[in-house]
Amino acid sequence: MADAPVSGVAGTTPYPWPFDGRLDPRRLVLVLVSPMEAGSAAPQSESTAAAVRIAAAVTAVGGKVVHVATIPPGRPRASVQWAGAAAGGSADGPLAAAADVTMVAAGIDGFFGTSLDHALRSWGVDQVLIGGIGLETSVHSTMRSANDRGFECLLVVDACAAADPSLTPAAVSMIEMSGGIFGAVGTTPAVLAALQSC
Q1: Among 108, 96, 171, which residue's Cα sits nearest to residue 142?
Q2: C-alpha 43 chain-centroid distance
Q3: Would you state the torsion angle of the CA atoms of residues 17, 19, 24, 26, taken in this order, to the nearest 10 degrees?
Q4: Mean pLDDT across the chain, nearest whole number?
């Protein structure tokens, strides 16, 4: 782990991330979000592979990685399981395997019904990388909640899979509007390059 913060992630929009230009592994967490669906296995994709690479890099520099499994609207927690995971228990799959901790949310927002906020604060982190499955749903909702709680967020756009890829530009635009109302947007290569400098 670095003794001192390094410069930020290159090429982020609409502002340089982190805002203070000091990427610090001691303040860094990667939150990986994915929906739980009854009887389904975790999707394998380029975005999932990118998220797993970032998780390994974050872990290597001493940062934390959290996986949050979210539940679709209108579905009680007890009715949902993912790839055979016990209802209400931990979800499995590549994103969960890459994480230090897995939590199961009570809705599509990764903070809802979990101890995610408490965990991040107890670890002393405030720089949040976000990726996962459900860009325009669970990932977006979790990022908004993190921002509302005062965490500085970077959506790693190519480490996210959208349920409807045609909505990706709109989801990104909503984050970037008004100078970065919900945070900033970056890419996997730029994040990995920044972490290699730590």
Answers
A1: 108
A2: 16
A3: -120
A4: 87
